[in-house]
Design goal:
There is one protein chain. About 35% of the residues lie in helices and about 30% in strands. The protein is of the alpha+beta class and about 300 residues long. Helix 4 packs across helix 5.
Length: about 300
């Protein structure tokens, strides 16, 4: 009876492990070392790419009420989108001057394929949209690759030009890294030439806005003059016509008729200033230029 009970209580695997304790210990140690090595070699991403199966259709139509936007723009586009396979939900918002349609797909659908289907449906709906639509519908998807992984602020008690110079230097240094796709500057002010026209003076000399535009665009240009062969050397010829100074614009001839020459200074005030701000960045009350750093993915795209 005692022998039968011992046989019943005996478990082969545990008995083998007890009888070969040294071998089992070495085997467990090898498995542990191989497991740690495999874990360290597993590819990991701190910012993995994630696709949201959502596509947006934005359509501006200025000068129209929300009701007109819904009936003239939103509904025709929705009608074509509803026939797309794999579509999970459609939501739309119609406000004054603007229409936004959100198309959500199933999670297993390819985002590029979904975007292509939406664009095809929008193209079909264009024939039903108003003929005086200023801007065609824009199809957008959520792209996490454009989200910066880090933001570097360059600040101090310096002028905008000095801060921008320092920020551009830092930008060039960061973009030289192989892991970085691009760096975007925010908070800087770009310089521009402003031409403030005097309408009364323009009417007095019979000058239109298109005359000023054509005069500036035709003079502010650099042309190629072909090539010149001399002493067996071929040299390229350029005719430089771009403006270097603001005063050169003042001496620009806008119109010349009936032996009367109209200069730009006669009808306008030309100044060298700054563009209108589109972004503002500050830190501790000081002006800041921010550098948004976007990392490059393994396949060459940014994330």
């Amino acid at each position: 009876m005692d022998n039968q009970q011992n046989k019943k209580r005996n478990f082969g695997i545990s008995t083998f492990a007890v009888d070969n304790a040294t071998s089992i210990f070495l085997l467990a140690l090898v498995i542990l070392v191989l497991g740690i090595s495999a874990y360290q070699q597993i590819p990991k991403e701190q910012f993995p790419e994630v696709d949201f199966p959502t596509v947006y259709i934005n359509t501006p139509y200025f000068g129209n009420s929300a009701e007109d936007i819904e009936s003239l723009v939103t509904r025709p586009i929705e009608k074509e989108i509803q026939s797309i396979t794999g579509l999970k939900d459609i939501r739309s918002t119609s406000i004054q001057d603007y229409s936004v349609i959100t198309a959500e797909f199933e999670s297993d659908i390819d985002l590029d394929d979904a975007t292509r289907k939406i664009k095809d449906a929008v193209d079909k709906a264009k024939s039903e949209l108003p003929s005086d639509l200023d801007t065609e519908p824009t199809v957008l998807d959520i792209n996490l690759s454009e989200i910066p992984i880090i933001t570097v602020n360059v600040s101090g008690e310096y002028s905008n030009e000095e801060l921008k110079e320092y920020a551009e230097y830092v930008k060039d240094e960061i973009e030289e890294l192989d892991e970085i796709s691009k760096v975007d500057l925010k908070g800087s002010i770009e310089r521009e030439v402003k031409v403030d026209l005097d309408l009364a003076k323009m009417q007095a000399v019979n000058v239109a806005f298109i005359d000023v535009e054509n005069a500036i665009s035709s003079e502010n240009i650099t042309l190629s003059g072909g090539e010149l062969v001399k002493n067996n050397f071929r040299r390229a010829i350029r005719v430089k016509g771009e403006f270097d100074e603001v005063d050169e614009l003042n001496d620009l001839i806008v119109k010349s008729e009936n032996q009367r020459t109209v200069y730009l200074r006669d009808i306008a005030n030309v100044s060298f200033g700054y563009e209108e701000r589109t972004s503002i960045a500050r830190a501790d009350g000081l002006p800041v230029i921010s550098l948004d750093v976007v990392k490059r993915s393994k396949n060459g795209s940014s994330y």
